[in-house]
Amino acid sequence: MTGAGDLDQRIAIEQSARSKDALRNVVETWGEVGKRWANVNFGKGSERRDAGLERASAPATFRVRWDSLTSAITPGEYRLSYLGDTWDVTSAVRYGRNRFIDITAMRNIRKA
User: Fold this and answer.
1) What pLDDT sits at residue 102?
2) Cα atoms in the 13 Å half-sphere on the side-chain side of 71
């Protein structure tokens, strides 16, 4: 069971906005829409080891309290920011009778 003390990591929730530039090209931007306390669980041991060695995409589950913002999170429209990385939401599932939302996301690693 998750208690208030287990939500000990601060995450930012970002939402996508699409607009058109002067050349009428679609431009996607991301803006922060809120911050929440979360319990963060990374993938299985082999996934953690591979991600650490290669700095590849790694899955994590972010458990946050259910509220009007977190219950609206959907893949593609929202992403998370945590420890300097962005995390692409792959699913958001209610947990415990509208007490929590489990957000599964993949670390987005872009090569410079």
Assistant:
1) 96
2) 10
Measured distance between the N- and C-terminal CA atoms of the chain, rounded to whole angstroms: 40
Q: Which amino acid is at 24?
A: R
Note if the pTM is more than 0.70.
yes
Question: What is the C-alpha to C-alpha distance for residues 99 and 18, in angstroms, rounded to an integer?
Answer: 31
Burial 14-42 (b: 16+ CB within 10 A, else e): bbeeeeeeeeeeeeeeeeeeeebebbbee
How much of the chain, in percent, has pLDDT values that exceed 90? 62
CA distance 98 to 92: 12
Tokens of 1: 């069971």
